[in-house]
Amino acid sequence: MTMSKSTQAIVPNCHVIKIGGSTLANLSEAFIKSLKRRVAAGQNIIVVHGGGPNINEALAHQDIVSETIDGIRVTTPEMIATIRNILIGEVNSGLVGKINASGISAAGLSGFDGVFTCDYLEQEIYGEVGVVTDVNALKFKLFLKGGIIPVVACIGTSATGDPLNINADTLAAGIASGVQAESLLLVTDTPGIKKDGVTVTSASEQDIRKWVANGIIYGGMIPKVQAALDCLESGVKAVQITDDTLVGTTVQATNPLITRLTKEVHTNA
After folding, report:
1. Domain ranges in the chain?
2. Which DSSP letter does residue 94 get?
3. How far, in Å, CA of 88 to CA of 61, rounded?
4. More confidently predicted of 119 and 232
5. Looking at the chain, which terminus has fewer C-beta neighbours within 10 angstroms, N or C?
6. Residue whose C-alpha is closest to residue 168's, from 195, 129, 113
7. Which of the pair, 36 or 27, is modelled with greater confidence?
8. Tens-place pLDDT, residues 135-166
9. Exposed/middle/buried for 88, CB within 10 Å: 0-12, 13-18, 19+?
10. How many other C-beta atoms can be found within 10 angstroms of the C-beta atom of residue 157?
11. φ, ψ for residue 98 (rounded to 5)?
């Protein structure tokens, strides 16, 4: 994934929170309370979300079988309209409604609203899947300055206006990089990276490389750790992989310049 830092206004005291689809289905009151505490403390919050379970259900109703490669859903032309409609029309609107109902102002966004741009990620392998090329930090800053939390669905648009499916973990990483966020939290249904059945509290770049190579980290966790490394490389100070308790594994850089995971580990934004 290529993430370019925005040359526009940088958002101060910004924290990006990515919520996985499975967590969304059972969004806890504890998460909403934590969100309200962060807003009350003056943090600028951007929320990015996926919607895997909702998409799986919709595709199953259409008798469409999908596959993933290293945690990325291969997206065919017959699937993309359904994915767009589910993410924007169902998941995003539902999440925005819950946040607004809690007393926090929120607005739903996607790549169609110009907050980020993207291009195809290896179309011959992944199909209608996008990679973030730029982030419009000024637009995010305008929402946040008005006291509104942007809630971003992981759908982008090609140069010709076609919808592109984007991995939510790496979209969140791209946005965190583009606004130079203080932190990125990847909230999922697992409390963090597990080794020998135990959640580790911290992991270095070298740990992650070793655990990917020996299979301790696999499947859907690969885009998460790649997102963490991308963010640290671009200057984001801290990345956590956590459940809705917001306490999990902190991924740390061991040197200022993090080299990327090997080419065979594919990622997208």
Report:
1. 14-190
2. H
3. 19
4. 119
5. N
6. 129
7. 36
8. 999 999 999 999 999 999 999 999 899 999 99
9. buried
10. 19
11. -65, -40
Q: Is 110 left (phi over 0), alpha (psi -120 to 50) or beta?
A: beta
Say which residue the tokens 């943090």 belong to: 43
DSSP summary character for residue 191? S
CA distance 134 to 232: 17
Q: Determine the Cα–Cα distance for residues 74 and 146; give it in Å rounded to an integer.
A: 37
Contact criterion met (CB below 8 Å) for 13 and 180:
no
pLDDT of the residue at 46:
97
**CATH of span 14-190:** 3.40.1160.10
CB 245, CB 191: distance < 8 Å: yes
78/58 Cα distance (integer angstroms):
12
Write down the residue that tokens 């090329």 correspond to: 133
Give the predicted TM-score (pTM) of the model: 0.81
Q: What is the pLDDT of residues 226-254, one digit of tens each?
A: 878 877 777 777 788 887 766 688 887 66
3-state secondary structure (DSSP) of residue 55: helix
Rounded average pLDDT over 105-129: 94
Instruction: Write down the H helix ranges in the chain.
Output: 21-25, 29-40, 52-61, 77-84, 93-101, 123-126, 137-145, 168-178, 205-213, 221-234
